[in-house]
Specification:
alpha/beta, 5-stranded mixed β-sheet, 46% helix, Rna Polymerase Sigma Factor, Chain: A, 15% strand, 11 strands
């Protein structure tokens, strides 16, 4: 029986995690729940799963992770505020099922140094796919990682057409149902840039050996190419319950958690190169990742500010990446990376993003 704390339990990932646990009571038991602000739903979940330990807010969630005995902490919090609970889970020796990619990206070396081998298990479908495919060979045999991207709702748009995109359009992802921020990040491909940085941190593969390919069907979740020319791909219908279930008990599969592909029906899968002109966010993320230190944190912080401004009608869709680019290019990293200097760098990046947003004319 795996004892699980679910952080961000009222969000999309949290609710799907509870679906997996509800369907497998002999495998998993919820011992703690944490939400950001939805107290009513948190209370309902606690009653439904007979959970004594709950938390509302980030500081409370971090303390919950420290205090409650468990085997796995699933971090489904959105945004860089998830860093505290991530570091608390690692320090407590828990297996960290990580859906909150921002905390690893922002924390950078602080997170990777704190983690024991195998302690962080990815929940993102792309990184789960890579982790599964990597089991087919030795790390020394890996040529490159290939992250797939759906292309979002605006695949094929020109930069000029993208400028007129509305917030309502940006959250209409063609294959996944997600929250406002993640849907917008997927539409700009900022999310894919974050995933490139996450892949580097999780698997220790050079940025030069991480590629992105557009795959609109979202069936092949990512691939690993080996030195002999073989490519191992993980394929399944777009359903987050598969990688969630794997993360709760890594290495052991859970029967019937997601739908299966119908191999008796004719189907076509497309793979296309990424349009760097219309979607420069991935290229920018690689630059931030290669710069190291707090540059990835600046990339993420600037984006969080820009996405909020876009949904408030203060900037256009294409301004989001422009704001992020300006902040990254002007960012100055601290001499030493600590939690304090990281926090200072994030604040500086957010302030720089707000200044840039204030100068934008729609």
């Amino acid at each position: 029986m795996r004892r699980v704390i679910v952080l961000g339990s009222t969000g999309s990932i949290g609710e799907q995690t509870l679906d997996v646990i509800r369907s497998n009571p002999q495998r998993f038991r919820v011992v703690g729940l944490a939400a950001g602000s939805n107290a009513d739903r948190l209370h309902e979940q606690a009653e439904m799963f007979d959970v004594e330990h709950t938390a509302l807010g980030i500081e409370e969630a971090t303390q919950l992770v420290r205090d409650v005995e468990c085997d796995v902490v699933l971090n489904g919090i959105t945004g860089s505020v998830g860093l505290g609970p991530t570091l608390a889970a690692l320090a407590a020796g828990r297996t960290l099922a990580l859906a909150n990619k921002e905390s690893l990206i922002v924390g950078g070396e602080l997170g990777t140094r704190a983690a024991k081998p195998g302690q962080i298990v990815p929940v993102d479908s792309e990184h789960s796919a890579i982790a599964q495919a990597l089991r087919a060979g030795e790390r020394t045999e890996v040529r490159r990682l290939i992250l797939t991207a759906s292309g979002g709702p605006f695949r094929g748009y020109s930069p000029q057409k993208l400028r007129g995109v509305t917030p309502a359009q940006a959250v209409q992802h063609p294959t996944w149902t997600m929250g406002k921020v993640i849907s917008t990040n997927s539409a700009t491909l900022i999310n894919k840039g974050l995933e490139v940085i996450e892949a580097h941190l999780l698997f220790g593969i050079s940025y030069n050996d991480i590629e992105v390919v557009v795959h609109p069907q979202s069936i092949v979740h990512s691939m690993v190419e080996f030195v002999d020319g073989s490519t191992i791909a993980q394929a399944s219908p777009p359903d987050m319950r598969v990688p969630i279930a794997l993360s709760l008990d890594w290495g052991k599969r859970v029967s019937g958690v997601g739908p299966q592909l119908d191999w008796t029906t004719a189907q076509t899968w497309q793979f296309e190169p990424l349009d760097d002109e219309s979607f420069p966010a991935v290229r920018l993320a690689k630059r931030a990742g290669l710069a190291g230190s707090t540059f990835a944190a600046a990339y993420n912080a600037a984006n969080e500010e820009a996405v909020e401004a876009f949904h408030a009608g203060r900037i256009s869709f294409t301004d989001i990446v422009d704001v992020v680019r300006g902040v990254v290019e002007s960012h100055t990293a601290p001499a030493q990376l600590t939690l304090e200097t990281l926090a200072d760098a994030e604040r500086a990046a957010r302030a720089a993003a707000q200044r840039a947003i204030a100068t934008v004319r729609n």
